[in-house]
């Protein structure tokens, strides 16, 4: 992946060239959008994504006009408090778990169940 801001730096990670997902994670973990580059890359490649992808600003609700319950960018935003999820495990892990998509293959491995091919994520449970 590469990231080259033209005006400003919306992800606040500076230019990144030819980085893999782990390098992109490391470059962004201290920013307000940890893992933002990887997440955006996955979003644009998803079959359900459209031509425009929006990430709500804090305290902003796109649906406020239509629903009585405030949502205030509480799901799916790229902000730090939405991306970093506490995780408790009772098995040794390899390095630091990075993405919620890694939880499913890790749980399968911990249960001794074969991880199906094509499943997103990588197990962080030690062999």
List keywords for this structure.
4 helices, globular, 2 domains, 127 residues
The geometry reads as globular
Number of domains: 2
Order of helices and strands: HHHH
Please tally the β strands and state the result. 0
Question: Please, what is the average pLDDT?
Answer: 87
Counted by DSSP, the helix tally is 4
Q: What's the N-to-C terminus distance?
A: 29 Å
Helix content: 10-25%
Which percent range describes the beta-strand content? under 5%
Q: By helix and strand content, what is the structural category?
A: mainly alpha
Structure, explained:
With 127 residues, the protein is mainly α. The protein folds into 2 domains: 1-84, no CATH class; 85-127, no CATH class. Helices cover 24% and strands 0% of the residues. It contains 4 helices and no strands. It has helices at 21-28, 36-45, 80-83, 103-110. The longest helix is centred in the N-terminal third of the chain and has 10 residues, at 36-45. The two termini are 29 Å apart. The model has no long low-confidence stretch (mean pLDDT 87).
Could you outline the blueprint of secondary structure elements for this entry?
Layout: H1 21-28, H2 36-45, H3 80-83, H4 103-110
